[in-house]
Amino acid sequence: RILFTTFTKNLAGDILDNLRKICSVIEMKRIEVTNLDQWVSGYLRDKGYEYNIVYSDELDDIWDTAMINTGLDLEFTRLFFQEEWAIVVEANEAYTIESYMKAPRNGRGTRLDRSKRKQVWAVFEEYMNLMNAMQKRDPEHAMYECKELLLKKGLVSQYVSIVVDEGQDFSMSACRLLRAMAGDEHPNDLFIIADTHQRIYRNKATLSKANINIRGRSSYLRINYRTPEQIRRYAFSILKNISFDDLDEGYDDGRKCQSLISGSKPQISNFKTQEQEEQYIFEKIEALVKQG
To answer: Could you report the per-residue pLDDT of 165-210, keeping only the tens digit for each?
Structure first.
């Protein structure tokens, strides 16, 4: 069997529709298409785990309760705790106070001494207690537990290959889980398509740290078939001096890329208000419609 997975449910649906156009019925029986969160939910449910994966507003409420229940007079906001949990705890699998005290906090900005880390951990511990009591998990923690379950049981992957689309949006937890799902490294185990210039979520992963070896196995796609060269150049001029990772420990400056098609030079307009911008867009679209 082959697993074709991606980050969002809607994109997984589009991929499934497109595969049905180019694959036979027999071939489709060997291909499973799903977004990773859905795969995790189904796997854990099959293994007897009853908790639900929750998102956004529901998680905000749980974090607020954890902060109140801890009763510590900390100057940190809910957003600080959520980012510290995601970037430091979950990315480093630091789910104990001992591992959190040692976890790197590169790029976090706010310095925490040992005493402050202990206070922050008290909120994390209460957050985990609340999640356990309500039988809930955030997506990253669920991926971690799913990965641990796979490794503990020593399960051989049920997939000969895993194809990943929009890999730039996958987190460290997701990449570690994919490695466990694929089993030990073997030919055609993982095929990951990614472009960090198109990353729209805050997730960031380093594949080598997830035991996904791409050195000598990766290809850089240099040709853009859908964006005119004029628009590509303008877009990259906006991103000048902003560094983008290559999903590993290198950087992608975009200089190797070029477009094969040519078009009109982009027209740039600036507005003082959102209303002015919306009116301009409306008038432009209306004019194009009238042109036929």
So the answer is: 999 989 999 999 999 999 888 889 999 998 887 777 777 788 888 8
Contact 31, 10 (CB under 8 A): no
Instruction: Mark 213-222 as b/e (b = at least 16 C-beta within 10 Å).
Output: eeeeeeeeee
Enumerate the β-bridge partners of residue 224.
Answer: 259
Q: How does pLDDT run across 94-138, given as a tens digit for each residue? A: 999 999 999 999 888 888 999 999 999 999 999 999 999 999 999
Rounded Cα–Cα distance for residues 151 and 97 (Å): 23
Residues 6+ apart with CB under 8 A from 286: none
Nearest to 55, CA basis, from 75, 68, 41: 41
Distance between CA atoms of residues 128 and 137, nearest Å: 9
User: What whole-number distance in Å separates Cα of residue 189 and Cα of residue 221?
Assistant: 20
Q: Pick from 124, 140, 215: which is nearest to 176 by CA?
A: 140
| Residue 210 DSSP code | G
Tokens of 144: 């971690």
Residue the block writes with tokens 């477009």: 259
Question: Helix/strand/coil (H, E, C) string of 148-205?
Answer: HHHHHHCCCCCCCEEEECCHHHCCHHHHHHHHHHHCCCCCCCEEECCCHHHCCCCCCC
Phi, psi of 2 (to 5 degrees): -120, 135
As a whole number of angstroms, the distance between CA 32 and CA 12 comes to 10
Tokens for 85, please give them: 């949990």
pTM equals 0.82
Q: With contact defined as beta carbons under 8 Å apart, do 239 and 282 qualify? A: no
H/E run at residue 144: helix 139-153
